[in-house]
Amino acid sequence: MVWVMERYTFLTVSRHDLFFKDFLGQMFCTLGEIIGSTGSRLERILSGIPGKKCGTIIFTAEELSNCRDIATMQLCANKLDKKDFFGKSDPFLVFYRSNEDGTFTICHKTEVIKNTLNPVWQPFTIPVRALCNGDYDRTVKVDVYDWDRDGSHDFIGEFTTSYRELSRGQSQFNVYEVSNPKKKGKKKKYVNSGTVTLLSFKVESEYTFVDFIRGGTQLNFTVAIDFTASNGNPSQPTSLHYMNPYQMNAYAMALKAVGEIIQDYDSDKLFPAYGFGAKLPPDGKISHAFPLNSDGENPNCVGIEGVLEAYFQSLRNVQLYGPTNFAPVISQVARSAADITDGSQYFVLLMITDGVISDMVQTKEAVVNASALPMSIIIVGVGPAEFDAMEELDGDEVRVSSRGRFAERDIVQFVPFRDYIDRSGNQVLSMARLAKDVLAEIPEQLLSFMKSRGIEPRPALPASSNPPAHMHI
């Protein structure tokens, strides 16, 4: 699933005859609003002509079936060229998808098989869309390399195929001659640099993020904002919390960028919002999970605008203090996630912070515990600080561990906001880039939880049984 980052879909409806157009109306929406609506069916009123009813337009969304197909294949090779002086070769394969402009994009690398000219690679799985983007006859190029420790891998040869050819499975059509153009040009008797054979090929359909959303799975979005003193006095322009009347600060930009995308997948638009690291009135007690709306019984804010309003109000009421403790708010959201593990809810916690974590040991334990729950954590770092600890929590390379236990899933995504500041000062562009990257892993994280628990999406919710009259376009 790809989160669509164009902020709004703009639609103009007109009657188009041979010599003229009549404007009939227009509307704005996001793709997320269409997918996130009941039955993936969204109806909206057209507008644009003062004093006139322009009618209603209805959108429905469906996912192309080949977007969910997963191909599993295994290959072997025979009599590859010997490249190593003291041995044979250490071969591996690199698969490339061809693009519309004639270029190629890497879509898979196999493992390296050491010291052999007749390797048998392990079976691997790849989404069909990654292999051919749904075009079964699109060229798939495969390069064969001899692995070298210094990274200067020796080219053995190449061959081309297609998804349609591969789908025939093990047969005479799927034995490929590996060709090295340079050797072919130099040696008149050159035949090939070995052969690669497809041993097996199967295709299965997997559930997608859209399947779960259409089946009623709700994303529960929670916000946690850093109110520690290292952010600076909010009344001063140097503060990361500075309330500039003319533009949003980094906290507000990050919140709005991520929240406006994810809110389309939350039907009630009620978002719990917390602060951490502040002294609260009237007694100056330090809290690491206080509701931004000051309502301990109901921390929900209405919409992202409601969260922003509560955030600015808190800046006026609390005293920035410290330390920077993450574990309390992670554990608080985890308790909610632990109550609903049937696939109907998935919890996303957005944490925005400026500094180094003070309770790293406790935070790691909280993340490990949360990794077994329907929950993801997004951390956006603002300001100039070093965020080494955040990188450690983002388990892309090494899974987070605590007391000898490793996280069941990678559920943390960290990005430093400074990497997304547009040099021209375009805040909209900065926010779009930020949202794209911080939300990139959520669909796969949701799917990994559902798959680990054997949870299947419920049937797509039916659209409204009494639709309004469609506008004829």
From TrEMBL:
<dbReference type="GO" id="GO:0071277">
    <property type="term" value="P:cellular response to calcium ion"/>
</dbReference>
<keyword id="KW-0106">Calcium</keyword>
<dbReference type="InterPro" id="IPR010734">
    <property type="entry name" value="Copine_C"/>
</dbReference>
<comment type="similarity">
    <text>Belongs to the copine family.</text>
</comment>
<dbReference type="InterPro" id="IPR036465">
    <property type="entry name" value="vWFA_dom_sf"/>
</dbReference>
<protein>
    <recommendedName>
        <fullName>Copine family member 9</fullName>
    </recommendedName>
</protein>
<feature type="domain" description="VWFA">
    <location>
        <begin position="220"/>
        <end position="421"/>
    </location>
</feature>
<dbReference type="InterPro" id="IPR002035">
    <property type="entry name" value="VWF_A"/>
</dbReference>
<keyword id="KW-0677">Repeat</keyword>
<feature type="domain" description="C2">
    <location>
        <begin position="53"/>
        <end position="176"/>
    </location>
</feature>
<dbReference type="InterPro" id="IPR035892">
    <property type="entry name" value="C2_domain_sf"/>
</dbReference>
<dbReference type="Pfam" id="PF00168">
    <property type="entry name" value="C2"/>
</dbReference>
<dbReference type="InterPro" id="IPR037768">
    <property type="entry name" value="C2B_Copine"/>
</dbReference>
<dbReference type="InterPro" id="IPR000008">
    <property type="entry name" value="C2_dom"/>
</dbReference>
<dbReference type="Pfam" id="PF07002">
    <property type="entry name" value="Copine"/>
</dbReference>
<keyword id="KW-0479">Metal-binding</keyword>
<dbReference type="GO" id="GO:0046872">
    <property type="term" value="F:metal ion binding"/>
</dbReference>
<dbReference type="InterPro" id="IPR045052">
    <property type="entry name" value="Copine"/>
</dbReference>
<dbReference type="GO" id="GO:0005886">
    <property type="term" value="C:plasma membrane"/>
</dbReference>
<dbReference type="GO" id="GO:0005544">
    <property type="term" value="F:calcium-dependent phospholipid binding"/>
</dbReference>
